[in-house]
Amino acid sequence: MHTQTHPVAKAGIRPDKHTFLVGENPFESMMARFDEAAHHLNLEVGLRKVLRNPEKQIIVSIPVLMDNGEVEVFTGYRVLYNTARGPGKGGIRFDMQVTQDEVKALAAWMTWKCAVVNLPFGGAKGGVVCDPSKMSMAELERLTRRYTSGIIDTLGPDSDVPAPDVNTNERMMAWIMDTYSMHKRHTVTAVVTGKPVAMGGSLGRREATGRGCMIATREALKLKGMPIEGTRVVVQGFGNVGSISAELMAEQGMKILAVSDKDGGIYDPKGLDIKGVLAHVKEHKYLKSYTKADRVTNAELLELECDVLVPAALENVITEENAGRIRAKIICEGANGPTSADADSILNDAGILVIPDILANAGGVTVSYFEWVQDRGGYFWDEETVNTRLEKIMVSSFQEVASMAQRNNVSMRIAAYMVSIDRVATVHRLRGMYA
Ligand code: NAD
User: 168, 405, 416, 420: most buried, per Cβ within 10 A?
Assistant: First the structure.
């Protein structure tokens, strides 16, 4: 446990589900990796300074007429971290824990994620401090529309393209698209991704992150010379990313030993009937009433003996405290930031191959990019085309990162940062510094 308080931690990262141990907040974790990658790249000092700072940070006050007739004022943020390679891309979250620092860290993360899979996007993120579980649909609609209007000068298919994140979904994306379009006086579908398929969304988007995790895991198994058939997989989190990863990995012949949700997990050393588990969750929402397997806690689940561990729930679940007890050979980071910076070296020393979040879960933003391309072209692809193109991008990105790791004798994580920072830095150099 750290005793030193990082300035960002002091500035308001809180002790709850989005929180990081002191000294392990997301911006610090990310910057620790950034510095290491920048060092290996010999990145010039000026560019380091540029890439350590967000381009633009917007704070808006959002008055909303509540159902009881009172006016409440909420605070919203939108941060464009870097747009050298293209429009800012990144989700909007509605949560009481949102802070400007967190949004800034997540916007930086999106910059590297888009670059590692070579999308022509920069990185951005947005958030509104609110508790959506206490708001009616009508209140949420007014909040979403007024927030959109507040940040409208930055939004646009060529400048800043939001997407769903924590507690936002395709319904809110539809309201953002509509509000923006009303102001522009014509329909602009490409201003936001993660929309309903009926109004410019892409087929395959819902499954894209899990599909990307499956593809990355398959490539990692090949790299390690391990068979795909019978590979033993443990998945933490059974939401969008975790459940789809588990389903698609099982389809490839892998054996899913354990899965979990917020209340704990289920475990069968012979392999779970994943279709049965999915059907159970569809009906009962949670895993806890599933009786055809043993129960494990979320902490125990991480330490199960397996070939592949997929943390697909929360940040910072693998820390220096438990990293030494992880018995997987490969970790595929479905979640954003599941491994603390301190845990990285412990996992590396143990010879565990970590497919870093910015690569492992980039399938989602890749299909968001496909959605934007389809909206702009006004021509929509079938699901097979989406999946084939996603596969191609995930495989080539994995190989580029693996080869960077091999050439420089660094971990896949540092290699992923090196690939992305190098791509962003190259564009800055070519464009020249308007300083
Ligand atoms: P989700 O809300 O659909 O699912 C989250 C799952 O985690 C649920 O099963 C929930 O019960 C479980 N969970 C919550 N608290 C837990 C705890 N304390 N221990 C274990 N499990 C717990 O969310 P999601 O969209 O699947 O996202 C999961 C992670 O993947 C997040 O870090 C998210 O930022 C990241 N991610 C998601 C996407 C995407 O396209 N959905 C893309 C990139 C990254």
Answer: 416
Asked whether the predicted pLDDT for residue 12 surpasses 50, the reply is no
| Catalytic sites, residue numbers | 125
* Residue 352 exposure: Cα atoms within 13 Å on the Cβ side: 28
CB-based contacts of 407, cutoff 8 Å, min separation 6: none
Residue 224, domain member (yes or no): yes
Same domain, 210 and 342: yes
Q: What is the pLDDT of residue 32?
A: 85
Q: Residue 303 is encoded by which pair of tokens?
A: 């330490």
Cβ atoms 33, 341 nearer than 8 A: yes
> Of the candidates 135, 170, 199, which is a domain's last residue?
199
Q: For 393-430, how does the pLDDT look when each residue is reduced to its tens digit (9 = 90+)? A: 999 999 999 999 999 999 999 999 999 999 999 999 99
Distances (CA, A) of 164 to 109, 170, 240, 359: 15, 7, 13, 19
Verify that 142 and 265 share a domain, yes or no. Answer: no
- The Å distance, Cα 237 to ligand 1 centre, comes to 6
3-state secondary structure of 55: coil
Q: Residue 284 belongs to what domain range?
A: 205-360
Q: Which residues line ligand 1 (CB under 6 A)?
A: 209, 236-242, 260-262, 298, 312-314, 334-336, 361, 364
DSSP collapsed to 3 states, 18-33 = CCCCCCCCHHHHHHHH
Q: Tell me the β-bridge partners of 127.
A: 77, 93
373: tokens are 């391309």
- In tens, the pLDDT along 355-401 reads 999 999 999 999 999 999 999 999 999 999 999 999 999 999 999 99
Please tell me the total number of residues recorded for the chain in this structure: 435
